[in-house]
Fold:
Amino acid sequence: MTEKRIRVLIAKPGLDGHDRGAKVIARALMDAGMEVIYTGLRQTPEMIAEAALQEDVDVVGLSILSGAHNALVPAIIEKLHSSGLTNIKVFVGGIIPEPDIAGLLDLGVKAVYGPGTDTQTIIADIQHAMQRSSR
Amino acid sequence: MPQIDPIAIRQGDRLALSRALTMIENNAPESRALQSALFPFTGHAHLIGVTGAPGAGKSTLVNQLAMGLRQGKEGQPAPKVAIIAVDPTSPFTGGALLGDRIRMGGLAGDKGIFIRSMASRGVLGGLASHTAAFVTILDSAGFDLIIIETIGAGQAEVGIASLAHTVVVVEAPGMGDDIQAIKAGILEIADIIVVNKADRLGAENTIRALRVMLEMAQGKSGAFDIKGKHGLDALLPTIKEKQKPQPGWIPPIHTTIATEGQGIAPLIEDILRHGEHLAHTGEWQQKEAARLRRDIQALIRNTLLDQWWQKQDENQFEEILADVLQRKYSPLEAVERLL
Structure:
């Protein structure tokens, strides 16, 4: 019998040093029965793609508060794809100005979450995305 | 789930390797044939277990060990290093927070290193049920050294002893009095003892307590070795004088400050020396035989249990359970009825 668990990488790319939000999300996803790999601060796109590959995660959650999302997110998605990880679901959380959200979604990001998002919403979105994909 | 080509794994395809590990962890039926196809190519890797209490600094030490081991010996190709880092699964939600990578940033970008976090998924003993199978796959993929970091362990989590060739037990100052050191358990499985955070207050006391414990285990006094520095030099001469050549392996005590990389080089030397010692004395083969014996026994147990459950009428089980609840008969008698 197969015993699949949803595996999630929570990563903080870039230079901002605030990871309270990332830790809260990591804990909430764990409480929802997921296996959450947390990599710590200041990850480069290469490091995130490498960790996603080694851990074979289904989902990558990026926490970005620095304002560098328009540079970081495309770089990370490109690295994921060039590593052969084309099926990974990418979610973004943090301080993302409204006008930038559509652009991130166009890149293939599943959802963008701002401050105050209910963790239950994020959990439901991940579970929904996993159900739709058959890997 | 798509099939994975065993040849791709042996040729170093990291994505195939990663997917294979997931398949095993999820108990996918396809993973059995894969493991069998790769098993003939195993037996090469030196398996190094790193265990110790939560917060002793295992992950930081593993990070340093892997960096140091990657240097290799002069004139030889750098060995490939894999790390399996096990963290606990919540018994209530089934989820897990795997945070060992946070301390392993020093290894990023090195293609000769592969790190995989693993949730225990309800298994006790400091490992997960598929850790041994992970080792098979990584071994066949050509990793020369496989470091297995257990769950933060204390007294009973000794599962690593039956898997690893070399067990490194990590202690930190201030984690308990000398009674903790003489209790049965984790120290008994140590091939090498590390007192990490050796710059902390109380490091000398911790070393002294460990030394006494080891002396008792050896049945003689002074028959071991202390390496490293950090204000402990005063202890060294007397110990070294007493040290005599021994036929068996005497667990050395190392002192490290893993966050600063101090004490790592001599520790690595002893880890490799222990591997050579095992090969030399024939203990390597004995350990392999003992491990495979246990693996096969465990597989028989699981297979028989699965087979029995498949044939078992669930209603009958529930009826008997209800009877046991009402104290009509004992669980022992219930088993006699069911089998």
Observations:
- Chain B has two domains: 6-282, 283-339.
- Residues 83 and 176 of chain B are 29 Å apart (CA to CA).
